[in-house]
Specification:
alpha/beta; five-stranded mixed sheet; 24 helices; 16 strands; about 15% strand
């Protein structure tokens, strides 16, 4: 074997090592160092490969990339205390039989599955005796995630783009943006997974998290000239039609993100495309990949990123055609128009609202009169104080119970991410008449500041709070968040809570930045909103936007991106969209069943008929197109 390296070439002759084709010929050993490709470890093949070398005291060190490898090794060895793992940041690939190219070296890390420092020291000494100087890690899982944060984006996008080296991913601005987006998602998944598994093990102390500036440092390293022509070994396997390390590098990290309820559109797209391109080679492959990329276009638009459909199939980047879809160009133009006039927004067929003050006036008109308050309380709240879309836990749940379930979920989410204590100060943004705030204060005993545009709603809020004897914990401030939040609220709140209000924001990125400003370091944002589903044309949503003071409706992937751009982290999305069709239908039933009573309360037939038409259309388009999305987002402000 001939190795070329910036540190000097190495030639290993056949007689220098003892080589065996059958692991049974080796037999039980003190140490087994495993550097095979991960697919060889899956299922029974892994047991056949490793088990013959395992004795009662054998220790196993796997120098492999990916998440979940140590669990597989533990199942083979039968004892996690004898399982070690290592990560090699060495940029090594086999260019031809017997020829290995080494182009870049940073470090080799080793750790122990149970993070036993004495065991790690023993493994480090073993390698040091062989003139390899590894860096011991205090958390093997953390180190594995740090490596996957590079492998997933660069190996994954290298395959998605047709089998290209790192430099070509960095040269194409659109693909570069998506690659960076994948890296960010892996980083956020990593820290959530580390916390989750640390808690499950009931360890003392604190979990070892990946540092805040890790992505920036890793990205800078990836721009090194020495990596421009480097093909990750996973990409080489793809080009050579060899088995690709999909399970541990792509599938398992994505599965953990989904298990934690994280919205990871970039990771999902890369995993799906890699799975198709490495699994099948028939005529339907292009159609399948094209559909995934087309469905991902709203996400790509959010970063102003484009990816050529032909780049997804060609093994030669020189043949790539830079063709953009009309839909993507249209969405990008919409984004540019929004940037030109941040105060302007479109609501489908409704007239253009050209000023922020006009938006505020329309919101007050829609929600803050006696008639409309009674209407919404009945139609969306079922007569209760939770006036928003509802989560159906049981077949018997009605509108009121479903809406209460939503409030419970949001409060639980907020408390889980950062416990709400009596000393906590919470901002309820767009608090309406305070239904959520009252439940929050009754449950946690916290202080709530309600920021809401409706003067009469605020008076009702405080009146209800006085009846509940919690008014000493609640203050109301009238204001329009489209004009910004008070300047003296810098780092004021432990939590920000908002229920189906951001749809009325004329400039959502600006509002999210304001929310981050008023959160304390480590503070938590939890909000729900009604959105258009990713990929759904705006025209289908017009009957809704015509009925509501709503901007061009956000998409889940856009919120996900905008939250990160605002400087918030650990973004998660609980998708509750499957509840909408039922809730729309029950809203329609509420209108029809209470039609005469509404008229007696002074609501005009014209107003009611418009609602019947709008809700009938919502039920239809949700059943036929799943056009609307709804759910709960959560995010955390970094500690400073």
């Amino acid at each position: 074997i001939h190795v070329t390296s910036p540190h000097g070439d190495v030639h290993v002759r056949a007689g220098d090592v003892a080589a065996h084709q059958n692991p049974a010929d080796i037999g039980p050993s003190d140490w087994v160092i495993c550097t095979v490709k991960a697919p060889a470890l899956l299922g029974e093949s892994g047991k056949r490969l490793i088990s013959p070398c395992i004795g009662p005291q054998t220790k196993v060190l796997s120098l492999l990339n990916g998440i979940g490898i140590d669990e597989v090794m533990a199942s083979i060895v039968g004892d996690p205390s004898r399982v070690f793992g290592g990560l090699a940041y060495v940029a090594v690939s086999r260019s031809s039989p017997g020829h290995v190219e080494h182009v870049f070296t940073e470090k080799i890390e080793i750790g122990h599955m149970l993070d036993d420092e004495e065991q790690v020291a023993e493994a480090a000494q073993l390698l040091s005796d062989c003139q390899v100087n590894p860096l011991p890690t205090t958390s093997l899982l953390t180190s594995r995630w740090e490596k996957v944060a590079w492998n997933f984006p660069f190996a994954g996008m290298g395959i998605v783009a047709g089998g290209v080296p790192c430099g070509e991913l960095m040269a194409h601005q659109g693909i570069r943006n998506i690659t960076r987006g994948v890296m960010q998602e892996v980083y956020e998944t990593a820290n959530r997974d580390i916390k989750h598994r640390f808690a499950a093990r009931q360890n003392h102390g604190s979990p070892v998290l990946i540092e805040d500036n890790f992505v920036e440092k890793l990205w800078t390293m990836s721009e090194a000239d020495s990596l421009k022509g480097y093909f990750p070994s996973t990409v080489i396997d793809y080009l050579n039609k060899s088995p690709v390390e999909k399970d541990f590098i792509f599938a398992e990290p994505l599965a953990r993100a989904q298990e934690l309820g994280l919205a990871v559109p970039y990771m999902t797209m890369v995993n799906e495309v890699v799975d198709i391109l490495t699994t099948c080679n028939d005529s339907k492959t292009r159609e399948s990949v094209q559909k995934i990329l087309t469905d991902s276009m709203p996400m790509a638009t959010a970063t102003e990123a484009t990816i050529s459909s032909s780049a997804s199939y060609s093994s030669s980047p020189k043949n790539t055609q830079k063709k953009k879809s009309e839909g993507l160009d249209s969405r990008k133009n919409n984004q540019k128009n929004k940037k030109k006039n941040k105060n302007a927004f479109s609501s489908g067929g409704r007239r253009q609202l050209s000023t922020v003050s006009e938006v505020g006036e329309q919101v007050v008109e829609q929600y803050d009169s006696q008639q409309t308050r009674n209407f919404y309380k009945c139609v969306m709240g079922g007569g209760g104080m939770d006036i928003h879309f509802g989560l159906f836990r049981h077949n018997t749940d009605n509108v009121r119970v479903a809406a209460e379930n939503t409030t419970e979920l949001m409060l639980n989410t907020m408390d889980w991410l950062k416990p709400v204590k009596p000393e906590s100060v919470v901002l309820d943004l767009g608090s309406g008449h305070g239904g959520s705030t009252h439940k929050m204060v009754q449950r946690f005993g916290n202080t709530s500041v309600c920021f809401n545009i409706g003067e009469e709603q605020n008076e009702m809020n405080l009146a209800f709070a006085k009846e509940l004897k919690i008014d000493h914990r609640i203050t109301c401030q009238q204001g329009d968040f489209n004009l910004g939040l008070p300047k003296d609220w810098e780092s004021k709140f432990d939590h920000v809570y908002s229920c189906e209000v951001l749809c009325h924001a004329a400039d959502k990125p600006a509002l999210l930045s304001e929310i981050r400003r008023v959160l304390k370091p480590g503070g938590v944002l939890v909000f729900s909103d009604i959105m258009g589903a990713d990929g759904v044309p705006e025209e289908i949503l017009r009957p809704f936007t015509d009925r509501n003071v709503t901007t061009v409706m956000a998409r889940p992937s856009e919120y996900h991106y905008q939250l990160r751009e605002a400087g918030l982290r650990e973004v998660s999305f609980t998708d509750l969209s499957n509840n909408l069709k039922t809730f729309f239908q029950l809203m329609l039933d509420q209108v029809n069943n209470n039609y005469d009573q509404f008229q007696e309360e002074g609501i005009s037939p014209e107003y009611l008929d418009q609602w019947v038409e709008s809700l009938t259309n919502r039920v239809k388009v949700q059943a036929e197109h799943e056009a609307f999305a709804w759910g709960v987002f959560a995010a955390v402000k970094d500690t400073e």
